[in-house]
Design brief:
With about 120 residues, this protein is mainly alpha-helical. It is about 70% helix and about 5% strand.
Length: about 120
């Protein structure tokens, strides 16, 4: 869940709703799925898209429509973006550990200084 408490990974939108939201034909979304650019959840009868899927599709459409990026370029951009997100999370985790270590070291120094008094 994100900070607003909304689970952006929960598949809730049917393909027709996403098509209306993004002003695309259902075949476009099916093509993007076939090419591995998006992975909606599939039930027996429906494709269901999450908020994350819709955001990803919106980015894909911006890249292709507004910037003229072809599908191979979109795939590379999406992969690089994912790598950057993973690296960002790793950096945040490293910073938390570093801050914890610094806090613990500071507390230990204070304890030692108070014992010496």
């Amino acid at each position: 869940m994100n900070r607003s408490g909304k689970d952006k990974t929960r598949p809730i939108y049917m393909i027709s709703v996403v098509c209306d939201m993004l002003h695309v034909h259902p075949q476009t979304l099916r093509l993007y799925e076939k090419e591995g650019l998006v992975h909606p959840i599939r039930t027996k009868k429906h494709r269901l898209y999450s908020e994350n899927d819709v955001e990803r599709l919106n980015l894909i459409l911006q890249l292709t429509r507004e910037m003229g990026v072809n599908k191979a370029g979109v795939d590379i951009i999406l992969r690089m973006r994912h790598r950057l997100e993973v690296m960002q999370l790793e950096m945040e985790e490293m910073m938390r550990h570093f801050e914890d270590d610094m806090r613990n070291d500071f507390r230990e120094r204070i304890r030692k200084a108070l014992k010496e008094e």
